[in-house]
Design brief:
The chain is globular, with a radius of gyration of 11 Å. With 72 residues, it is α+β, with helices and mostly antiparallel strands. The protein is built from two helices and four strands.
Length: 72
């Protein structure tokens, strides 16, 4: 897995932060997510999908789309 730029939002809030895959992966592991499930999340993000898991909404940060509407 390569590190990718992400936009993350806590579910139920409008607050968004930019982060990276390695930080999110470490957090998901502390929340007892299996390696297989983490790989599925990574593949979905790389495919350009928005992923909601463990109270987070995640989307790959794309230079042209790095705005407030990407994870809504």
């Amino acid at each position: 897995m390569h590190n990718i730029a992400l936009i993350a939002a806590l579910e139920g809030t409008r607050h968004q932060v930019t982060t990276d895959w390695f930080a999110i992966m470490a957090m998901l592991k502390t929340r007892n997510m299996s390696d297989d499930a983490i790989e599925i999340v990574y593949n979905d993000l790389c495919a350009g999908l928005r992923v909601t898991t463990r109270g987070l909404t995640l989307a790959k940060a794309v230079e042209k789309q790095q705005n407030e509407n990407i994870v809504k």
